[in-house]
TrEMBL record:
NCBIfam families: nrfE (TIGR00353), PRK10369.1 (NF007691). The lineage of its organism: Bacteria, Pseudomonadati, Pseudomonadota, Gammaproteobacteria, Alteromonadales. It comes from the Bacteria. Required for the biogenesis of c-type cytochromes. Possible subunit of a heme lyase. This is Cytochrome c-type biogenesis protein. Residues 327-649 form the Cytochrome c-type biogenesis protein CcmF C-terminal domain.
Amino acid sequence: MTPEIGHILLIMSTVLALFSALFHLVGISKHHLYLINWGSSFFNALFFTLLSALLSLIYCFVVDDFSVAYVANHSNSQLALGYKIAAVWGSHEGSMLFWVLAIALWGAIINWRQAGKLVGLDSADMRTDKAYFARLLAILALVILGFNLFLLFTSNPFARLLPNIPIEGRDLNPILQDIGLILHPPMLFLGYVGLTVCFAAALASLLGGALLHRHLEYLRPWVLLAWIFLTGGNAFGSWWAYNELGWGGWWFWDPVENASFIPWLVATALVHSLVLTRKTQGFALTTLFLCILAFSLSLLGSFLVRSGIVQSVHAFAADPTRGMSILCLLVLFVGAALLIFAIKAPALKREVSHNLLSKETLLLLGAIVLVVAAFSVLLGTFYPLLYELLGLGTLSVGAPYFNTMFVPLTFIAVILMGIAPLIAWKASTRKPLKVLALPSVAIVIIAALMTYQTQTDGALFLFLGCTSALFLLCSLGMSVCTKSQALTPPKPVKPSASKRAKLAMLVGHLGVAVTIIGATSVSFFEQEALLRMGPGQGKPLADYVLVYESTEPVETSSFRAIQANISIRDAKQDDLVLGYLNPQRQTFNSNGMEVSHAGIDHGFWRDLYVSMGLQLSDTEYLIRISYKPLATWIWLGALLMMLAGAIAAWPIKQPHRVAQTKALNVTNSPRETMSL
């Protein structure tokens, strides 16, 4: 009965999404506040029906209802409870339901909070903002409507296997039975939902004919939250692959990895563009366009993951019909948004005057570089697919292409990132450039010496990585040491807001530097050996000796395994045992699938990584051992970036509200100021 209830709730949510969109849109066109309030009520009901539908699906997993096809294909009675719940979003149907619920949740929060946003506004501004929020919620309801129809007709998570109900489920993919599944997909989905809110807010501003300063303030937390979740989603996905897949790498330029990385790059450009628009009262069209572009790329990534056109452990589905449905939604949403942008953009144009060598120029260039980097990754991801689709054969685009394109662009972005904080708004960069000249020369010399002494392949990439990290750290040090941005005259801003923004910038840019240091160190200073090992055999590596002590069987409720016990010894004192590594070859009971589970000794300065391969004799196995310097810094930097976003997004208490009615581009249209 529970699956039928969930299915009915999904149908109800589809009808409520339609009603919410219609009542909002008709209320705006008729200037009728009563209809708009009904639309808001329908949206709240929409959220609760979707929440109930997801809870129904979770219940089906918890009670092992294998009559539901989705449960039978992705769960098992022996699966741990935590993984049963995580399996809800572990594949296509459930993840789409979670995604739609997240959109409804964020929309409901906006709906509930809008009353507080309207406090302190005069009647005309209140009517303007009421119409703005009504348009935003209508667009979100239309997006939910599209996704709900997609779920009902192509990806119903409550579809039954009647009358042939299996006794046992196929189990969750063993590779997904990791804490990474609990954290990685939900964070990515919440990031995508944040981009959906940005998309809706951009269209709401375009349809209203103006982008008001206070509307930017409404949009800012959602942009930052989307960026925080996307950062966390990409970081946890990388961490999960590093720990679980047994390959020892942290990024593979996998097409599905790229599908989430591309929107993150554009979202990063959007964060900086939003700052630029708030500070200069200009570049509003750039900000609105980036909102649309980021959402478009997130949908494109979803198409890539769910269409089956690429094979990856990260992919959710392999059904071309579903892929074409998502592609149709992409064309519909993005095509309509770009058409609206083309029609409304000319009225939003505004001349902005600033120095060629200024903070404004650097921020704009930084956003452009990030967008170019995103499209370079997009090209490398989709070009082989298009090449094969056109019947031209197969083509492989791997790490050499991505590194060649992405590393130099990252270097340029980091240099801009280092200079921009040292400059005040509407000021020239000449003085900061002079101050940075001498440290820059020293940094280049140090990086060149490090590269020369290493004598490794990819010397240019090593040089760029060292130079960018050192330059950014030097710039951050100068930013901390200069009081009130001493390189340029201080500007009259609220002290709390100024300090909060500067702290967020420092922490975020420090996170970028830390990640670059970690990635560069692992890429160029890793030591690795692939050898045949058995009990009593050892291998020196860096400052350690890894000794294969014994092999033992391990058995759990989910799998049985052969485990190697490898001791970590000090190279100078061979009898001093520093710890143990326990790599395994796991065979899962439900499907007989065999996977390698790495043994990792995490440390602040280095990781020791051991993976266990095939059995070569009665006592010997193929063992890969690696010394990875500063590997943890890759994810430490991501955590610092997320912390920076949280600092910037955290609300600042203000003793009283002052309404800001000035439009950034054009005044409100007459219809906007009429009585609702």
